[in-house]
Amino acid sequence: MQFLGKNLEGIYGERVLIGDELVPATIIISNGKITEIQRHVSGYNFCSSDDSVFNAGNNVVMPGIFDSHVHINEPGRTEWEGFFTATKAALAGGITTIIDMPLNSIPPTTTLENLEVKLKAANGKCHTDLGFWGGVVPGSTDSLKPMINKGVIGFKCFLIHSGVDEFPCVNEDEVDRALNAIKGTGAVLAFHAETDCGSCTTDNADPNQYSSFLASRPDEMELDAIKMVDRLCRKHKNVRCHIVHLSTARALPIISKLKEDGFPITVESCPHYLTLNPQEISDKQTQFKCCPPIRDSNNQNELWNGLKTGVIDMIVSDHSPCTADLKQPGEKNFMEAWGGISSVQFGLSIIWSQAEARGFNIPTLSRWMSQEPARLAGMSNVKGKLDINYDADIVIWNDEETFQVTDDIILYRNKITPYKGKLLKGKVLATILRGQIVYAENNFSNISGRLLVK
Ligand SMILES: [Zn+2]
């Protein structure tokens, strides 16, 4: 592939995403930044040595995908994933920036010292740019500002057991203190919004059946937590709050009202809640297990409606892998298996397959998967858009081509995924990071991702 590794001076094509439309245009790049955008009726007149100018033809040219919710798990649980494999898979899926979650690495990213351990582990291994979330755990209030000064984009907290003992959950008072501590810093507090509300005893249910697991994590658990977020958000008016991986559509009216009243709340959902269905999950198919759970198709339709109306801001992967022995689809039951879904490599295609069928267009998809996550991360002036002075982070993809998810194309470490065998529409052809073609036609260039810290 003649362009692989090249630092481009320009990209042109018939369908370049400028503003909110796909138009014929040339993007001029210098030192990794977009310096000029030339719209043209058709054809191209860029003067340069030709091998530094890429012709995308009729393929889509749009901002690289920005995935603000990925569990890389290194150091400490590198056998679950790791920086090298997660970012390589991401690059093949058109992702140019990842934000790493503060768990399930050991140590978790809950102090500056622990963040430094993570930075050391990540150094030199990242195919994409990589930013970091910190974590709020009991007693961590004094640790937050030093992590902000080092460059974390914000903090994640759990209102229910996180699944790992080294990242304990917090109560309302502890969240209140954390919100006070980050006030005025611009950092965002992200909530795993489920609480243990006591309405979910399923003693006699068959743990092999998905319906039993679903009944054990009812909508009320999310609703109860989101009511707490609502109270805290209204109390701490100017501190940004974010709800990760929304599954229940029944919370949309609460969130909609918060937005209407002008509070800085944002919400994400994930490919699995938007495309998978309990009816396709047979006994012990634990590759479908995640928390909160995948709910029914009426709920799913309402989530898409939430995206349409803007109550849900963005779609991110929540890539949360583990080793095969913790999932064992067909062997372990739903109560025993680890909860988490792996999909970082396929987000664009999974979402496009459904979004197109539901009548959404590519500019809208780009807003959900690039622009809004970049804004959440406080990077909306450098990433998530094709515009002057932005990083030339770009994905070039064919929106008509289909492919099947098979083991041999999966690049993340543990290949268990509910998407196996599925036919997806939308194939990534090349990924460009700060002007350099770092992925093209299944080939990778040198590692050139940066750690987005100070
Ligand atoms: Zn997660």
Provide a brief overview of the structure:
The protein has 454 residues and is α/β, with parallel strands linked by helices. It is built from 12 helices and 17 strands.
Walk me through what this model shows.
With 454 residues, the chain is an alpha/beta fold. It has 2 domains: 10-62 and 391-444, Urease, subunit C, domain 1 (Roll), CATH 2.30.40.10; 64-376, TIM Barrel (Alpha-Beta Barrel). The protein has 12 helices and 17 strands. The strands form 3 sheets. The protein has an 8-stranded mixed beta sheet with strand order 3-2-1-4-14-15-16-17. A 6-stranded parallel beta sheet has the order 8-9-10-11-12-13. The model has no long low-confidence stretch (mean pLDDT 95). Zinc ion (ZN) binds at residues 69, 71, 101, 318, 320.
Note the topology.
Blueprint: E1 10-18, E2 21-30, E3 33-39, E4 53-63, E5 65-70, H1 83-92, E6 95-100, H2 112-122, E7 129-132, E8 134-135, H3 144-150, E9 154-158, H4 172-182, E10 188-192, H5 210-216, H6 219-235, E11 240-243, H7 252-260, E12 265-269, H8 271-275, H9 297-309, E13 314-315, H10 324-327, H11 347-357, H12 362-376, E14 394-404, E15 423-433, E16 436-440, E17 443-444
Parallel strand pairs: 1-4, 5-6, 6-7, 8-9, 9-10, 10-11, 11-12, 12-13
Antiparallel strand pairs: 1-2, 2-3, 4-14, 14-15, 15-16, 16-17
Zinc ion binds next to loops.
Subunit structure: Homotetramer.
Protein name: allantoinase
Pathway: Nitrogen metabolism; (S)-allantoin degradation; allantoate from (S)-allantoin: step 1/1
